[in-house]
Design brief:
Largest sheet: none
Order of helices and strands: HHHHHH
Distance between the termini: 74 Å
Oligomer: single chain
Strand content: under 5%
Number of helices: 6
Shape: elongated
Length: about 140
């Protein structure tokens, strides 16, 4: 086998083992089996560029990517999500937001209807509203 092709294959193997600490013997056997087939495939090439080009469009390349996904899902399994609990959390969040909004609106309504406080709130609202135009005018100049 061409030395450059051999190095290319070995780099792929190292990419797996430098990224993951694999202890599962079945997974290790599967990796070895894949690289035995890849070495057999690579032994036919004297030119590393031709090997890389052909490998990129081969089923072995696709299998190599799938092997990474299998290893990743085995080493870092996705946590199981209890959908019932998630729905309850979401519903509780909705209820909490609704309650907060309702209380805030009620307090604002009562404050607006209170003499002097309501007048101050209204004056602030107008000041904020017209203040936007003043700031914009200042920026334009």
């Amino acid at each position: 086998m061409n030395e450059m092709v051999k190095n290319s294959i070995e780099a792929r193997r190292n990419a797996i083992f430098s990224t993951y600490d694999i202890k599962d013997q079945g997974l290790l056997d599967r990796i070895d089996e894949f690289f035995n087939r890849l070495n057999e495939y690579g032994s036919k090439y004297d030119d590393v560029m031709k090997f890389e080009t052909d490998f990129a469009s081969s089923d072995l390349c696709k299998e190599y990517g799938e092997l990474f996904m299998i290893i990743n899902s085995t080493i870092n399994p996705e946590p199981e999500v209890d959908e019932g609990k998630e729905l309850l959390k979401e519903a509780a969040g909705d209820v909490t937001r609704y309650a907060k909004r309702t209380v805030k609106e009620d307090l604002a309504s009562k404050a607006r209807s209170t003499p002097i406080i309501g007048d101050v709130m209204e004056a602030k609202q107008y000041a904020d509203f017209f203040g936007r135009f003043k700031k914009k005018k200042d920026k334009d100049e």
